[in-house]
Amino acid sequence: MGATCHENQGSWSIVHQGRRYIIQTLERLAWRKDTFVEAAQLLLRLAEAENQTWGNNATGIWTGLFLTYTGATEVPALERYSLLQEALQSGISAVRALVVEALFKALSVSETGNSTSEAQDGYVPLKRWHPTTWEEECIARRKALCLLDVALSDTDEQIQNRARAVLFDIARGMVTRGLAEEIMTRF
Description:
It is a single chain. This protein has 8 helices and no strands. It is an all-alpha fold. Helix 2 (36-48) crosses helix 3 and helix 6 (134-152) packs antiparallel against helix 7 (157-176). The N and C termini lie far apart (60 Å). The protein is globular and about 45 Å long.
């Protein structure tokens, strides 16, 4: 019986290590514009079936892709948001709930994320996308607010409640970024 428990622990460890390697590979693929969409979609599937609790799990990596300034990708925000829009149409509540968490990151003005570019094994390091003008930031945040509106009217009450909490959490930051009118109309 002891050997069986040990064997089960070993296979558990191998499965989780394998999952970790897959997440790390997808994270690297999400840096590049030409592989972003497929990598992000796969990370979303892994996040939907999350079984790890640390911050750099599939959920943390996927939602972190949508940070406005420190998102780990060269893909512009508006292009990334098309994935969120698509996922909001999912019939799976867990997927829509993940979108709300990604929107929280997109709308947060206090971002925490990896501040260096990903080494690309022999390639020139990619430059992460971030807004270069105030207007570009406002356009990205307005689009994220429009996506939050969809979540606010979701059929799942838990998603609506989390979307409301996100709206309250980001309200002050959005006002400081010049989006007071957009926030006030939502209250």
